[in-house]
C-alpha cells in the first residue's frame, strides 16, 4: 500500500533513528531524505535504510618495525545487503571516522543500485597513516585486520576493494590471509587485486574511465565538445590521475591537477603522462613539479574551467567554494566531495553536477565484473571489460538523467531516487520478517 509520508515528521517513529549530526553521514542523509520524500518511502523502510545493517569494530594490534606493538582502530560497516553481498572499498587514513565509513557504506548501497549491479553497500576503514608505515607494517596491519574480519568478509557475504591509500598489493594480502583461514584459495573475496591473482583487466583504470564516460555524456547534454573544454582535477591518485589522462586522450585540455601538496596549473594544458611519470619518480607526490604554477587546492576548485573533477575526498566543495566556483560541469570522482549547502548554490548557478554515486561507479562496476570472472574461472579481455563498462555507465547516466527530468530535480537527487527506489523495491519483495 502506498504510504503518504513527511520525512521531516519524525514522530511517526517509536524510536528516533540514530542519525549522526556531523558530516559526512549527515550529508548522505540530507539527500536521502529528499529522495525518500519524492518516493513517499514507507517510514519503516526509511528507518531501516537510514541505519547501517551491521557495524564491526576491531582493535588491530601490529608489531611495528621497532618491535613495539601499536594498536589501530579497524572498522567495517555493512549498510545494506538486500540486493546481494555487500561491496565496498577499505580506506587507510589518519582521519577515518565511524561517521565517514557509515556514509561511505550507504553511498555504496545507492551506487550499486544506480549502476544495477547485484551488490549491497559496505565500506571499511583503518585509522592509520600509511605514509609513515613501512611495507612490512602495512602488510601486518592488513593481515590482522583481515583475520579480525574473517567472519564478515566472504565471496557471498561482503567483498572489499581498494579506496584511498589502499591498492592492488593490499588486496593481494587480504586475498592471501582470507584464503589461509579458509584453507582454500578464495579469489572472489576481494576485488581490485593484481591480474595475476584473478584481478580483472581494466579494474585499475575503471573508476577514472567511468568518470571520463559520464563527463562526455554530460558535455553532450550541454552541446559541448571535449576538444573545446578545459578541465581541473583535484586529487592525483587512482581516480584523479586516470580521469585526467583519459579526458586528455578525449581531447580535453587538462589545465590543473592537485594532491595534498597543492594544485599545479598550466593554462596551456599539462602533459598528463609526463605528470604521471614525475609522480612515479617523486615518491608518489606532485611536490615541486616545475612545468606548472603552484596554486592551492581551493584555487584549483574555483578555476575558470569548463569541467571540474573533485577526485580527492569528502567535503571539499563547501558553501563558500561553491559561491566562487566557475566550472560549468562538476563530475564527482570522489565520494561526497560536495556538502549539501553547496548543492543549492550550484543548482542556482546552473552547474551540471554528475553526482558521486553515478560518476565514480565505474570502479564497483568492474569490481562486479571481476567477481563474476573469479566465480566463473574464466577471464575477459580488456576490450570486453571496457565495452561493458561503457555500456553500464552510459545506461546509468541516461536512467539518472531521465529520472531527474521526470521529478524536475538535480542529477544528484535523480540518482538517489533511482538507487533508493531499487533497494526499497527489493526490500518490499523480500519482506523483513525473521
Ligand atoms: N579507488 C577507487 O576505485 C574508487 C575511489 N573512489 C573515491 O575517489 C576518491 C579518491 O580515491 P583514490 O583515487 O582511490 O585514492 P588515492 O589514495 O589513490 O588518491 C587520493 C588522492 O587525493 C589526494 N588528496 C588526499 N587528500 C587531499 C586533500 N585534502 N586535498 C587535495 N588532495 C588530496 C591524494 O594526495 P596525496 O597522494 O598527496 O596524499 C591523492 O592524490 C575517494 O573519495 C574515494 O573514496 C570512488 C570510487 C572508487
Ligand atoms: O570496487 C568496489 O568494490 C568499491 C569501490 C569503492 O569503494 C567505491 O566505489 O567507493
From TrEMBL:
SUPFAM superfamilies: Aminoacid dehydrogenase-like, N-terminal domain (SSF53223), NAD(P)-binding Rossmann-fold domains (SSF51735)
Gene3D superfamilies: 1.10.8.1210, Leucine Dehydrogenase, chain A, domain 1 (3.40.50.10860), NAD(P)-binding Rossmann-like Domain (3.40.50.720)
All copies of domain Glutamate/phenylalanine/leucine/valine/L-tryptophan dehydrogenase C-terminal, residue ranges: 200-431
GO molecular function annotation: glutamate dehydrogenase (NAD+) activity; nucleotide binding
Keywords for the protein's UniProt record, in alphabetical order: NAD, Nucleotide-binding, Oxidoreductase
Residues binding substrate, per UniProt: 87, 111, 367
Annotated catalytic residues: 123 (proton donor)
Residues noted as binding NAD(+) in the record, renumbered to the chain: 207, 238
An example Gene Ontology biological process: L-glutamate catabolic process
Domain of life: Bacteria
SMART domains membership: ELFV_dehydrog (SM00839)
Site (Important for catalysis): 163
Keyword Transmembrane helix: no
Family listed: Belongs to the Glu/Leu/Phe/Val dehydrogenases family.
Protein name in the entry: Glutamate dehydrogenase
Native species: Longimonas halophila
